[in-house]
Please model this.
Amino acid sequence: MTGKLEGFQSISTNTTTNPYCIKQNKKKDNNICTFCYSHTMLNTFRKNMAPSLQRNSDLLSSKVLHPDALPVVNQAFFRFNSHGELINQFNLINYVNIAIKNPHCNFALWTKRFDIVSKYFKDNEKPKNLILVYSNPKINHILDKTPQYFDKTFNNVEEHLEVKRQNCTGQKCKDCLLCYKFNEVSTIVEKVKSYGKKK
Model:
């Protein structure tokens, strides 16, 4: 990974073909998905990534993969979906099984798909090394209450708002790790990155 996620490894999917992402990206009314860095990158200077991400999308969402087909992760911290969003239940189950296969590593998954998460975890135990981060779609509306099954909320605010609460601004994830460790911090706040787009 590069930029904020420099030094991290990640398994990601294709934002530009995910029906949920496409729909959210077209919304208005202060939805953070309208500022999606992934859509911007995959449609411009990172177009070459799209075929690889699409292979991931197809594989992870098609069936529950055999444990032998899942990767061994040689990292202490790992991110699911630095690009993309959960596609379906298969996608989530495969991520859960990757975490189970790699108990030495802390995995963090950002998702807005409470529907997929709640449907699965109401009948299944969450691995102790999987941190679920609810990615709040609404800008300038900090969620202090963590939804059921989630460990943290990730919120975006305009740069001049809630400045004292912005605890994910101007640093690299590897130097912070708030999202990748179980700790007393459950509310993450970042200023909106507009990537040149206007509200």
Observations:
- The chain has one domain: 3-191.
- Strands lie at 10-11, 77-80, 106-111, 130-135, 152-157, 187-191.
- Helices lie at 19-25, 37-42, 50-62, 89-101, 114-121.
